[in-house]
C-alpha cells in the first residue's frame, strides 16, 4: 500500500462549470464529478486544476462539495497552457508521501465509485499504469484524408478509454519528464516512454460530456437521493445503527423506521442464518463483515440504511462508523435498553421470524457479552414505549443533528 493516495480532478476547461441537472439538483459538472471522487475510500488529497482565469468560479464550485469530505484535503490550483502543464501543476500540489495518483476528467461527471476502486486496486496489485475502458460495440473504420476507408480494425481488441487513469506517482512523473507536450492521454505518454498500461473494466455511466446531447443524456442518470447527498443541496444518506441485547426491540424498531423511508434493513441475524443454510458450520465475524459491506453499497446509492444487530463490542461499533465514513453518510448510533421484567417477558414469549433461526432463551440473553454503550448518541429505553414514539425520537435526533458525528466521505 502506498504511503498516501491522491486524485487530480481535471477541470481545466470552462465546460467544467456547465450546470448539470434541473432545479435544486443543478450543479456544475465539476461539482458532480467531485462528489464521485469523494465517495472513494482511502482518499487523502484532491487537487482540482483550473484555468487561471476561472479560479474563483472553480473554487466556489468545489467548496460546496468539499464540505462533505472532512478527512480529505481539497485544493484548487491554476493549470497551464497545455494539458501536460496542468498535470504537472496538479502533481506539484500533492504532498510528497502520496504514492498513487488518479488523473480524472470533470467532463466524466457521473463516473461510478466502483471504477475508481478498480483502478486503485490494480495499481496496488503491481500495475504502474492503469486505465478503465469499455468494449467497442460498433464496427470501426480507419479513413484517410479523403474520407476513404483504409482498414477495418478487429473490434474484439478495441477498447474505448475512460478516466480516472491511475499511476504510481514516479511512473507518471517520469513519463511527463521524458515526454510532455500537447498530450491528450497520460497513459499514452507512459506507453510512448516504454511503459506497460493495464486495462480494467470501465462503465457506460462514465460518459464524457462533449456537447448538449451528452449533457441531456447523463442528466437522466442522476439519482435524486445521491444528488441530495451534497451538504450544499440537501441531506446525506442516513446510517442508523441500533444496538442492544437480544429481545429489547431492535428489529421491530428497525422495520418501523425503515418502512416509511423506504430504507434498507440490514439485519445480521438474517445474514448469519443465510450463511448457515449455505453450509457454514461456525459463524464468527463473517455475518457482521457482510453486513458492513452491504450497508456501504446501499448508502452509496443514496439509500438510508438501518443496521440491526446486537452490536456488542467497541470493535463492531467502530466498524459501523467506518462503514458510514466510506459511504459519506450521517451516522446515528442508538443504544436500546429495557427494564429487566419486561425484557424477560419479551424474550420468553417472542417467536422467531427467520426460517431455521432459534431465538435465544433468557439464560442465553443474560450470558451474552454486551458491553455498556454510554457514548451512543441516543439512549432509548423501550420499556412500556410504543414503537411510534421511539421512531419519533430517532427522527427528532436526526433533525436536530444530535448524532454522535456526521461522517463524510474520506479515509476510513
If you had to describe this structure to a student in words, what would you say it looks like?
The chain is α/β, with parallel strands linked by helices. It contains 15 helices and 18 strands. The protein folds into two domains: 5-219, Spore Coat Polysaccharide Biosynthesis Protein SpsA, Chain A (Alpha-Beta Complex); 238-406, P-loop containing nucleotide triphosphate hydrolases (Rossmann fold), CATH 3.40.50. The protein has helices at 29-38, 55-66, 83-93, 113-124, 169-178, 186-192, 212-219, 224-227, 250-261, 268-277, 286-300, 314-327, 340-349, 362-367, 387-400; strands spanning 5-10, 19-20, 27-28, 45-50, 73-78, 100-105, 129-135, 142-143, 149-151, 159-161, 165-168, 198-201, 238-243, 264-267, 305-308, 330-337, 378-381, 405-406.
Spell out the key features of this protein.
412 residues, alpha/beta, Spore Coat Polysaccharide Biosynthesis Protein SpsA, Chain A, Rossmann fold, 2 domains, six-stranded mixed sheet
Give the gist of this structure.
By secondary structure, the protein is of the alpha/beta class. It contains 15 helices and 18 strands. Helix 9 crosses helix 15 (387-400).
Q: Can you tell me the residue ranges where pLDDT is under 50 for at least 5 consecutive residues? A: 1-5, 9-13, 224-234, 402-412
**Beta-strand residue fraction:** 15-25%
Based on the structure given, which CATH architecture of the largest domain is correct? Alpha-Beta Complex
- Mean of the pLDDT scores? 82
Give a count of the beta strands, DSSP E runs of length 2 or more. 18
Integer-rounded radius of gyration: 25 Å
Which structural class do you get from the secondary structure elements?
A: alpha/beta
Q: What's the total helix number? A: 15
Q: What name goes with the CATH superfamily of the largest domain?
A: Spore Coat Polysaccharide Biosynthesis Protein SpsA, Chain A
